[in-house]
# Entry
Amino acid sequence: MFDRNSAQSSLDILYEDRVTLNDGRSNPETVLLQLTSETLVIRRDKLKNDRNSVDFSLEQQSNSLDNRLQKSTNDEEMISDERLIKLHRQPNETLGFSIKGGIDTGMCLESIKIFFILENISYSGLPILISRITKHQLVNMIKVGDAILNINGIDLSLMSHDEALHCLRTSGNEVLLNVKYMKLMAPFLSHQISTNNDMKHHQFSCISSKQYNQGQPNNDEQELLHQLLHCEHSNDVDKTKIENYNHEDDNPVDLISKLNISDSNTNFNTSLIRKSKKQSRRKRMKNYLPVHIPPTNSLTSSQTRSTSSSCSSTVISEFPLFYASITQYICGTDKLRSNSFQLSTLDGSQLGIIICDTILKQQTWIKQINIVIKNLIRLTVDELNQTFLPSDQIHYETWLYERFTIRNNLPEWKTKFFALKGNDVYLFDRPPLTSYDFICCNKIYCIYETLFQIVKTDYLLDDRPYCFTLENNDEYKHYFCLETKQELIEFETNWQRSTYMAVYNVKMKSFGCTYMGKICRLIIDIHQGFSLINNETNLLLWNYKFSQLKSSTDNARTKLYFDFQSDNEKLIKIEIECQHLKTLIYVINSFLTAKLIAVDNCG
# Structure
């Protein structure tokens, strides 16, 4: 989980300025915007938020733990009745869901302890909870937040996480589960996003302030519960600390004091249960989600210094820049915002509209934020490349926008994530966080079989100026846009570099064709140029270098016409017919591009 205190104290501020924030829910307000090497921080002035602070304090008092527990005893929505679920699976197949919890995860929350006592459920640790469903067939049978009470009649209440996992794996092909829905637990699990990479889970969790009105645990209990739910995949230091807490006295008051929880506001000190400092930046960044720190009157002087650079800034919102995207356009349109921009984080959260005084400030902010985002992407790419072969490395990644035509022929721009890896082009809806994400990508194109063209001003479809197209043999032309001219130049440079590397990696391509009524194969070789070989006799009919090609045309169907210049400077016209004409033309274009780059480098 993202450690707010450690991040605030360890990350230097790279750039800061006063801007206007319009979140669409209240009147625009002046805030202090700060840029660090990993996050974008919003600090609201104390004087303008005193009333909000009082409102929040009253709301927090009205939602006290005792009042919630008393109400929950008659609330049928908090925990539903027990249900029997019968599941079938094939041999060597998983059940289709993931679990968390177990006796070894501890039970450190007073509210949850009392809640299980009221419901006559015996647990000395967190129950075995369904945390993720991977088979869509199970959606109507089980849900995230279901506690598994027993499996085929075997009680799980005294099992550790590993023991419960083993019980599930060895339960046979027909499994009978006795489950009970835990609404108190569900919000902590339903907001987690996990990706599997060599059996390592990176959890994302986001808790909105709206949960204070829904009978959920307070902010300090949320913090601790997140740590407990996460502990089974944390480092060994965290596991040891949690296990040590399990052997302490079960008295919640004593346990709170042993965990250094403030008596005034039960403000949990997250430094007791934090991730190892030896974790890499990428692993820590994967747990970033927007964090809102509400104002409080019980901060100590050290906590005040760690969460505020000045006495006037008390309300802090942090937005991670790991795979974030930034735009100066109104969402989905080709209309520019006036001196403003908007940031979207990896999980889809949006910063709101940041309004600057001048266009110069706007461009400065966009440039500085993009630098940080690209640095974080580069660090992730470097780590992912360690798992790929040298010929299959990631060369380039970036956000871009694709134009679609929706109902009534109205255009709409959607955010896409673009990657050049090995010999291929990848298009994602969300950035790839693991090597497995590249395998699962459903839009993969061979780069030397794809045509890249920058759209000239006269052919632009709307007011977005920095556009290009990608076209291959699938009969669909992708129309993309980047934010600035510099980004377009950078994209073109990386495209040409990746094309050069892909062509010299594959070296040659062969296409079946007919020439003068004979079945032949046209070979395009990066070193030998164009060669035509008779399939029946396997004899070379002709060969020309790339430098001898003067022009080429086609009839947009199957025929391709070459104009070569012979050694005696005589122009030779050649006609061939190929069923894969479009792919052939794109390959020739890529080989010519690679050859020109090679000549320029030699020159």
